[in-house]
């Protein structure tokens, strides 16, 4: 038997959800590891942290690694635990999701994990040329419609932005369950003569056992969406390349 919410119950649920989001946004204003940049701070201008992350935020000279579309921050937090000698920054527009990862980082005393609430479109307002050592793209929206190609996080527009902020030989990692998006990215890498280091269409079925133990541990960190898709029987695709 199907059950439908009444209009009042639906609106109440919607308002409660919005209230929870607003509450978390407010809480993050006092989080030491979250930056919620205002539009005017990044639109056609540079944020004060640009080229100053190591001095103003992390207070060290360690390498910087970004996670784009970090969602709940599983990879940002997981990688920060694995590599205390590196600094990790998760970026997402969804503040309520970031709240979870930021909260976990605080609870775990991870001083090398930080989060930015902003659109990926503004990434070059936050990071200077050659300021970033490595980049992770974990289960982004594949934007399958042809009319939305430019919104894919490996579309030419975004690739050019990554090239500016990554150091020479800086590595880009991608994990996704969407084969169409994965093949699209492989085509972009080939078309632009980027250096494809490795790739697999079935990470946990054919490739991961052949990797060293540390790499296996890193790739076994799973986001909320990866767990969801894996439970549905989706194969996980992985690649890494450099420009």
Poorly predicted regions are 9-15
Annotation field: number of helices: 10
Percent strand: 15-25%
Oligomer: single chain
Q: Give the helices and strands as they follow along the chain.
A: HEHHEHEHEEHEHEHHHE
What is the H level of CATH, i.e. the homologous superfamily? Vaccinia Virus protein VP39
Task: State the end-to-end distance.
Answer: 54 Å
Domain module tally: 1
For the record, the CATH class is Alpha Beta
Can you give the mean pLDDT?
88
What sort of overall outline do the alpha carbons produce when their principal axes are compared? globular
Give the fraction of residues assigned to helices.
25-40%
Write down how many β-strands occur, each being a DSSP E stretch of 2 or more residues: 8
Structural class: alpha/beta
Write a structural description.
The chain has helices at residues 7-28, 39-42, 53-57, 74-82, 95-107, 156-165, 179-191, 203-207, 213-219, 224-231; strands spanning 34-36, 64-68, 87-92, 113-117, 132-138, 166-176, 195-200, 237-242. It is an alpha/beta fold and 243 residues long. The chain has a single domain, classed as Rossmann fold (3-Layer(aba) Sandwich). An 8-stranded mixed sheet has the order 1-4-3-2-5-6-8-7, with helices on both faces. Helix 4 (74-82) links the parallel strand 2 (64-68) and strand 3. The radius of gyration is 19 Å and the shape is globular.
Set out the fold topology.
Blueprint: H1 7-28, E1 34-36, H2 39-42, H3 53-57, E2 64-68, H4 74-82, E3 87-92, H5 95-107, E4 113-117, E5 132-138, H6 156-165, E6 166-176, H7 179-191, E7 195-200, H8 203-207, H9 213-219, H10 224-231, E8 237-242
Parallel strand pairs: 1-4, 2-3, 2-5, 3-4, 5-6
Antiparallel strand pairs: 6-8, 7-8
